[in-house]
Amino acid sequence: MAARAQHSGPAASGGGAPALVPLLLLLLSAAAIIPRGDGQNLVTEDVTVVEGDVATISCRVKNSDDSVIQLLNPNRQTIYFRDFRPLKDSRFQLVNFSNSELRVSLTNVSISDEGRYFCQLYTDPPQEIYTTITVLVPPRNLVIDIQKEIAVEGEEIELNCTAMASRPATTIRWFKGNKELTGKSEVEQWSDMYTVTSQLLLKVGREDDGVPVICLVDHPAVKDLQTQRYLEVMYKPQVRVSQNYPVQGLTREGEPLELTCAAFGKPQPTDMRWLRVDDEMPQHVVVSGSNLLISNLNKTDNGTYRCEASNAVGKSHADYMLFVYDTTATTEPAVHGFTQLPNSAEELDYGDLSGTGVLLNASTEALPTVQISNASIALHPDSRAGEEGAIRSVDHAVVGGVVAVVVFAMLCLLIILGRYFARHKGTYFTHEAKGADDAADADTAIINAEGGQNNSEEKKEYFI
Questions:
Q1: Which of the 8 DSSP states describes residue 4?
Q2: Coil, strand, or helix at residue 176?
Q3: 240, exposed or middle or buried, with CB in 10 Å at 0-12, 13-18, 19+?
Q4: Is 243 exposed, middle or buried (0-12, 13-18, 19+ CB in 10 A)?
Q5: Are 164 and 219 in contact (CB under 8 A)?
Q6: Nearest C-alpha neighbor of 155 from the set 206, 193, 222
Q7: Type and span of the H or E element at 21
Q8: Is 79 helix (H, G, I), strand (E, B) or coil?
Q9: Maximum CA pair distance of the chain?
Q10: Which residue among 12, 42, 237, 245 is least crowded, i.e. fewest CB within 10 A of its CB?
Q11: Strands 151-152 and 233-245
Q12: Contact (CB, 8 A) for 336 and 383
């Protein structure tokens, strides 16, 4: 009792200081469980997983004090308490358990598993942190629907690419071969899923036949997901005329000429014929299928010969202009080949024309425009046109020379006449009648004149 009195005496005299000791001990105990440093003792990360894959949730303790760790689902049901699993869901499996970590895997993840999962640390007071599981759903049934299976050149067709039931919504990109095109997308939401449809309007030409159109999906749940359709385009024939004989030479009188017509189209041309533009075909011309043969050329064969080809889409043609030279012609024209004069503003030139010198012409129907380089025109103009140009150049030179000579002669003549009239201007006196001033009449004056009639030859004057 004395001891208690001694203990209580100072307490009474000291103003109740011993009563603060239990409070101080409680505060020190609480400080031991409060997170230090960054103020967060529990650590976890959000999880993003593709539907059907495995999600791993990790609850970690920075400064472990052997406190109990547990994991709860979005409904606050305990999945794991230490290494014990109260929740009867076999998809949850314990990966690792220690005083500082609880790691759990979730297999065959579905949309219903998405949400917040809670990590709890049994301290006083308890600590809690949550992790979010996000489930990605790749698009299904990626298909391209084409408006017309078979298109005709110049038509505009519609293509639709649909990516169904994805999460989040997909981004659809279009390619034609290696060239990216721009489509118009529309998104529809059904519950937690998104269906995206992209529309592409494409004007097709003959160069698009057999080219793949690709629908490519950009989505975080999948890589390189794409589908494609090959275009099938019908187009008019493309016609070429080639000269088999003579090969790059002059077409002279008496020599043969052989031409060949080739036509390509889709469908393949079924009708091909030769005709002479603005005139009847000469009787001695032999046409055999795609070949035209003139065994003995003459001047009456001059003109334009046309090869026409047609299919179910339309008709096209190519022209060959023939100019027959004299047998004495030996000079090669500066340039030779074919001149194809289009009868419309659009012109076809398919393939490398440098070898054959063939230039294609469109028919009266509209055809795709093809640019012809100046180099091709310079290499392959018409042989007849080139020769005619050379002849015209020679004629102009001759006429110019003649005119120059005539002008020069006229100038010289004018100079001579000017000098002549300048020297004969004025009054001239001679001595033929000297001494006849006193004669009674004219006869006497002539007889008495100095020199008389006998010396008349000596009185001549010469003017130069």
A1: H
A2: strand
A3: buried
A4: buried
A5: no
A6: 206
A7: helix 20-33
A8: strand
A9: 214
A10: 12
A11: parallel
A12: yes
Question: Which DSSP letter does residue 333 get?
Answer: P
Residue type, 409: A
- Single out the residue of 247, 365, 356 nearest to residue 316, CA to CA: 365
Q: Does residue 125 have a cis bond before it (omega within 30 degrees)?
A: yes
CB 317 within 8 A of CB 309: yes
- CA 54 to CA 107: how far, in whole Å? 4
Q: How many CA atoms lie within 13 A of 266 on its CB side?
A: 15
Local confidence pLDDT in tens for the 464 residues of the chain? 333 333 333 333 333 333 333 333 333 333 333 333 333 589 999 999 999 999 999 999 988 888 899 999 999 999 999 999 999 899 999 999 998 999 999 999 999 999 999 999 988 888 999 999 999 999 988 999 998 999 999 999 999 999 999 999 999 999 999 999 999 999 999 888 999 999 999 999 999 999 999 999 999 999 889 999 999 999 999 999 999 999 877 899 999 999 999 999 999 998 999 999 989 999 999 999 999 999 999 999 999 999 999 999 999 999 999 999 998 877 655 434 454 433 333 343 333 333 333 333 434 343 333 333 333 333 333 444 444 444 445 567 788 888 999 999 999 999 988 888 877 655 555 555 555 566 666 666 666 655 555 444 445 555 54
CA distances from 425 to 318, 411, 459 (A): 76, 22, 21
What residues have CB less than 8 Å from 366, skipping those under 6 apart?
154, 344, 346
Q: What is the CA radius of gyration of the chain?
A: 56
Burial class (CB in 10 A: 0-12, 13-18, 19+), 103: middle
DSSP letter string over 353-382? -TTT----B--SS--------HHHHHHS--
Helix (H) / strand (E) containing 217: strand 212-219
Task: Please check whether residue 84 is in contact with residue 90, taking contact to mean a CB–CB distance below 8 angstroms.
Answer: no
- Contact by Cβ (8 Å): 242, 356: yes
H/E run at residue 102? strand 101-106
CA distance 201 to 351: 29
Contacts of 132 by beta carbon, 8 Å cutoff, 6+ apart:
46, 47, 115, 116, 117
Short-list 390, 400, 321, 394, CA closest to 361: 321
Asked whether the bond before 237 is cis by omega within 30 degrees of 0, the reply is: no
Beta bridge partners of 57: 104
